[in-house]
Design a protein that fits this description.
With 390 residues, the chain is of the alpha+beta class. Helix content is 35%, strand content 12%. The protein has one domain. The chain contains 16 helices and ten strands. It has a four-stranded antiparallel sheet with strand order 2-5-9-6, with helices on both faces. A hairpin with a 5-residue loop joins strand 7 and strand 8 (249-250). The protein binds iron/sulfur cluster (2 copies). One iron/sulfur cluster binds at residues 293, 295, 297-298, 320, 325, 328, 336-339.
């Protein structure tokens, strides 16, 4: 896709979604994300980063104490299994599906197309079916090509490859997948990584099944996880939540404790609208994530433009130091989400007291809400997780 003119930089709905784009905007080159750079950039790659990736095979997993024992790595790596099956199946062609290439279709588009007279009704139906397949959130927005990667990565040599979608896919279905609260509470640990792995495996299954349904209706659908484009701006534009200092979308239903996936489609669907919740206002008085980050990778102060090689250029936002962050992951041989664990919005919102707290946090009484949160967010010992429910 040829990158269109970025004039004017702001588009309809950006302000409501909390998206702030300047004339410096450049679409992101996926080869520059820190996980890809860990394979080609000597500034990032070292024995530890190689060890990080190798640890996802049991023969290379380190075993060094609570939260990082053979059982912890065994659970984490098993949780990733279904995602790994998908991402490895076309590795020989340089397509790491779900990460550095969209998930290839297993279902042809049906020759007969179901008529869609009411896109609002169809959107409601898609949300119901997304829930049936196991998605915890689902909303629809337009395909804003600013958030597609300029190029993807050919994983055979980590070179840039064409990032093409079929023409006419005007809609993006954004799906949210809740991470397990009890495992997230044990970050940092290899055990906690099982919460991430399980949701990647869930994501793969949900986007593939929902895409197959749409294709069976006679419409195009491309299933996507981390590949093809940045999911966060699509989630914001679809009204699923608000961007926060910890680099996550904070949602009213699950706080920051979920992952997102997406489907590009030409199925006629009404779009959801972005909404300002008050999360960013809360982040202006809170620094719990930045304070807790062991790598000091999260920013203080107000959103800014810029950031390093691995940051998208020309978007004013809170941006982490991805090199510092991934350096900590590599040191641990597992992913980290301490900044998710300590966030005051990381709560079980099925409980009334947490819903009341949310109302307070999103109101002008946010300082009181932050004060009420002062003793929360501590780490649960991984050994305690293994004891449960004795
Ligand atoms: S994931 Fe961990 S290292 Fe990275 S920003 Fe969050 S707390 Fe810091
Ligand atoms: S910990 Fe505080 S500053 Fe960080 S994302 Fe959560 S609410 Fe925002």
């Amino acid at each position: 896709m040829v990158w269109p003119s970025n004039t004017p930089p702001q588009r309809d709905g950006d302000a409501e979604a909390g998206i702030n784009v300047s004339d410096n905007f450049q679409p992101f080159i996926q080869r520059n994300d820190v996980f890809s750079r860990a394979f080609w950039d000597d500034h990032i790659r070292n024995k530890r980063t190689d060890g990080f990736f190798n640890s996802y095979r049991m023969e290379a997993a380190p075993r060094r104490g609570a939260g990082f024992t053979q059982k912890d790595f065994a659970l984490r790596n098993a949780a990733w299994l279904m995602s790994d099956v998908i991402s490895n199946r076309a590795a020989e062609q340089g397509r790491r599906e779900g990460f550095q290439a969209p998930i290839a279709n297993d279902t042809p588009v049906a020759p007969d197309q179901v008529a869609v007279d009411d896109p609002a009704k169809m959107a409601a139906e898609i949300k119901r079916i997304a829930a049936f397949f196991g998605a915890d959130l689902c909303a629809v927005t337009d395909l804003d090509e600013r958030w597609l990667y300029k190029t993807r990565v050919d994983t055979r040599d980590m070179s840039e490859a064409e990032n093409a979608l079929p023409d006419g896919l005007a809609h993006v279905i954004v799906l949210g997948h809740e991470m397990d609260a009890e495992l997230v509470a044990t970050y940092p640990s290899a055990l906690a990584g099982a919460a991430t792995g399980r949701e990647y495996s869930h994501e793969a299954s949900v986007v593939m099944q929902l895409s197959a349904y749409i294709r069976n209706l006679g419409y195009e659908a491309v299933a996507s996880m981390n590949d093809t484009g940045l999911v966060i701006p699509f989630a914001l534009k679809a009204g699923l939540g608000e961007y926060a200092r910890n680099q996550m979308v904070i949602t009213p239903g699950f706080g920051p404790r979920l992952r997102f996936s997406k489907i590009f489609t030409n199925l006629p669907l009404d779009h959801d609208l972005p909404r300002k919740l008050g999360v960013a206002d809360f982040c202006t008085i809170c620094t719990k994530c930045a304070d807790a980050c062991p790598a000091k990778a999260l920013p203080y102060g107000s959103p800014t433009e810029g950031g390093g090689v691995s940051a998208i250029q020309g978007v004013k936002k809170w941006t982490s130091d991805a090199e510092k962050c991934f350096g900590f992951w590599a040191k641990m041989s597992s992913d980290c989400a301490i900044c998710m664990r300590v966030c005051p919005f990381n709560r079980n919102f099925s409980r009334i007291k947490n819903r009341l707290w949310l109302r307070l946090a999103l109101s002008r009484f946010r300082k009181l809400a932050l004060w009420l949160d002062r003793k929360r967010g501590g780490r649960v010992k991984p050994t305690d997780w293994w004891q449960y429910p004795t």
